[in-house]
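TODO from last week: model Translesion error-prone DNA polymerase V subunit UmuC.
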Amino acid sequence: MTSKIDKVFGLVDCHACYVSCERIFNPTLIGKATVVLSNNDGAVVARDDLSKKLGVKMGQPFFEIKHLVESKQLRVCSSNYALYQDISNRVTKVISQYVPAYEVYSIDESFIDLSGINENLEKLCLEIKSQIYRQVGMPVGVGVGKTKTLAKLNNWASKKWKAKTGSVVVILDDERQNKLLSFADVGEVWGCGSRTQKRLELMNVTKAIHLAQYDKKALRQMFNVNIERTARELTGQVCFGLEESPEPKQNIASTRMFGKRVYELLELRQAVASYAAKAAVKLRKEGMLTSCLQVFIQTSRFDDNPYSKATIVGLESPTDDTRELIAASQAGLTRIYRANTPYAKAGIMLSQFTPKAGYVPDLFAKPERRNNDRLMALMDSVNKVQGAGTLRFAIEPETSSWGMKREFLSPAYTTKWNELLKVKIS
Ligand SMILES: [Mg+2]
């Protein structure tokens, strides 16, 4: 028996997310092997279980599977990133009806904090699952454990034994948890990518349980602090709270309260553009490309006529180019802007990431974008040395009237040349 359980985490995971989104609107795809293709229908970006069984690989070029489509064994859809984001937002909304604290981790996964909930957790998770299906049409699975890492692994188990578990696996006692840890390969553990897995296997750490039992200090020395934390999490010790993870998060948000109410479209344009630029820097730092940008603007909740609106802009192809992200943010803003409204807050969010490493750029990409890597790298390096905003796009103002209220801010003595402390020598 376990002693008192302090924390309980769950992971709600959309099954074959992109394919399932397509099935909501095209039920003839249900029960048929289906894949979603990248922009310009180049390669496979999402598969369902049935297409996996047909041998279709992630990233496989379309021409290699064309025969399967022609022989009617496989269905294909072009990617519709804005739609997938909208469905994902709806799933989150249902989740928020059941749990007070959650973290949207990626387009198809949300962590939920179930600590202190005095209900039958299995029943609650089955209810969340069936409500998401009823209200949105998205099939999901749920894994629950004492830590986020265990919740993720238990979700893996719920998928592996779908029929037996009803896609919900709740494990809070150590004996059952250890049984699963002994079964699962270490590569199934969150934070153990294929490179880490290979190194661990050389140390005879082949199963998740081996990692849980390994000397934690040695892991930190040989790898890094995140692997140590991951190993501790496997033993039930919480190291990652909500919004913390061993891997970079799969979305980036940039949002701010304005220092004063903003009415003008031009000022909102500047604000949203500078948030997009800031998020782009972060995106490049994480080595990711994004397929989707969301913009939102809102008044204060306490206004007489509160107004709050968000919109989703799907990007033509995955990008980390500030110019494209600014353009998308402006397009989105135009859709939702309402005149004569006292805006108090705006923001953008990037989501649906693809690792830049190994990404094959689109053959049909606009030629003027081909040198974007060099330009962006130059901007990033200048801004790193000279200070953020040294090189920026024309729409981003140097100073703004809508910025944070910071009338009593002390100068940036140590990080800006022009704000260095001046010493008078007499
Ligand atoms: Mg999924």
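Done. The CA atoms of residues 102 and 112 lie 4 Å apart.
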